[in-house]
Amino acid sequence: MEVDKHQLFRRYAGNPILVADDWPYTVNAVFNPGVVRHGNDTILLVRVEDRSGLSHLGVARSNDGFTDWHIDTEPSFAADESRFEETWGIEDPRITPCEDEYMIVYTGFSRGGPLVCLASTRDFRTFERRGVLMVPEDKDAALFPCRFNGRWGLLHRPVSAGSGTTGVGAHVWLSWSPDLRHWGDHKVLIHAREGGWWDANKVGLGPPPLLTKYGWLVLYHGVRVTASGSIYRLGLALLDRDDPGNMLVRGNEWIFGPERDYERSGDVPDVVFPCGWLLDEAQQSLRLYYGAADTSICVATANLDELVEHLHRHCICGYAHAVGYRCTIAASEPIAISSG
C-alpha cells in the first residue's frame, strides 16, 4: 500500500502572522479571522478577545496578505451589550461578498447561548446589523455568495440539548431563505459520524463555501475528544454547483491538523480553526487563514487541483474516484460505513 506523506496545506514560514502583542491596545488573544480581498488589500476581520474574556471584531489590512499588517486602533465592530444576542460578545466571523456588499455571518454570545447573527459592510469601517438568523444553540455559519432559484443558502451548525450525552451528534445543516430573515427547508448536509472517526460526534463549518470549477468546496472541522482534551482537525467535501444540497464527494481523512507548537499550545490547545480562505484563480492557489490554539493567527497555502484530486482519492466510501464523479454513498446521509 502506497503511503502519501504529502502535505496538502503548507504552513507559512512566518507563522504566526498576528499575535496579541501586535494589537495597538491591550488584548488577550487574536484568532479565527474572516478574510476578503477589498481593493488592493487583504482584509482580516479578527476575533479579538480582551482581558474581560469577551470578544469583539477588529480589522487588519495587508497588501500581500502575509506581512506589514495595519490594525485599527480601536475595536472595528464592537459587541452591543444592550442587545440580547450580543450580551457576552461576538465571535468567529465569516465574510461572503454578495452583490455590492460584504455579508458577515458571526456568532453572538447571548444569555440564551450562542446564536447566528448577520451584519453587512461596504468598506469595513462602518457595519450594519441585519438581525439574528438562527436561535441558540447555533454557530459556525456562513452564506453562499449567490442565490439559488431566488433563495439564499446558509450553512450552520446547531447543537441540540444533551447532544454530547445522547449520541445524536452535532452536524452541519443547510437552510434556505427568500429574504435573509425567514428561514426554512432545513436539512442536514454533513453528518458527524459515529465511533472513533476524526469527525465523529461533532463537526462544524470552516470558511464560507468556495465556488470552484469543480463545484462548491467546503472545509469543515471535526472534533475528536481524547483523554487529554479535544483535537480540532479539518476535512473536505464537495457540493454540486447548481444544487449545493447535493453532496458529490466527502473526504474520509482529515487533511490539516495541529502539529506546530503554536497550534498545540495556547489558550485552547490542539486547535486549528479557519474562518476564511482566498482563491487565486489564475494560479489555482488557496490561502487559508486560521486561528491557532485560540491564541494567534496563521496562514497556510494549498493548490486547489491537488486538494480536489486528494478528496476524490480518499472518499468516505473507501474507494478512489475520478475527478467529477458523484459518490452515491457520500450523498446518502447518515453514512453507515464500517471500519473493517
Description of the structure:
With 340 residues, this protein is mainly beta. The chain has one domain (10-330): Glycosyl hydrolase domain, family 43 (Tachylectin-2, Chain A). The chain is 6% helix and 44% strand. The chain has 4 helices and 21 strands. It has helices spanning 163-166, 261-264, 304-313, 328-331; strands at residues 10-11, 29-38, 41-49, 55-62, 70-71, 90-98, 101-110, 113-121, 128-134, 138-143, 152-158, 172-177, 184-190, 203-205, 210-212, 215-226, 229-239, 247-250, 272-280, 285-292, 296-303. Strands 14, 15, 16, 17 and 18 form a 5-stranded antiparallel beta sheet that branches. A 4-stranded antiparallel beta sheet has the order 1-21-20-19. 46% of the residues are buried. The model has no long low-confidence stretch (mean pLDDT 93).
Keywords:
4 helices, four-stranded antiparallel sheet, single chain, globular, 340 residues, Tachylectin-2, Chain A, mainly beta
List the helices and strands and how they pair.
Elements: E1 10-11, E2 29-38, E3 41-49, E4 55-62, E5 70-71, E6 90-98, E7 101-110, E8 113-121, E9 128-134, E10 138-143, E11 152-158, H1 163-166, E12 172-177, E13 184-190, E14 203-205, E15 210-212, E16 215-226, E17 229-239, E18 247-250, H2 261-264, E19 272-280, E20 285-292, E21 296-303, H3 304-313, H4 328-331
Antiparallel strand pairs: 1-21, 2-3, 3-4, 4-5, 6-7, 7-8, 8-9, 10-11, 11-12, 12-13, 14-16, 15-16, 16-17, 17-18, 19-20, 20-21
- Mean pLDDT, rounded to whole units? 93
CATH level-3 fold name: Tachylectin-2, Chain A
Q: Tell how many strands the DSSP assignment holds.
A: 21
Summarize the helix and strand pattern as letters.
EEEEEEEEEEEHEEEEEEEHEEEHH
Enumerate how many helices there are, as a single number: 4
Largest sheet: 5 strands, antiparallel
Beta-strand content estimate: 35-45%
Radius of gyration: 19 Å
Distance between the termini: 16 Å
Q: Give the name of the CATH architecture.
A: 5 Propeller
Number of domains: 1
Low-pLDDT regions: none
The coarse silhouette is: globular
* Strand-pairing-aware structural class: mainly beta
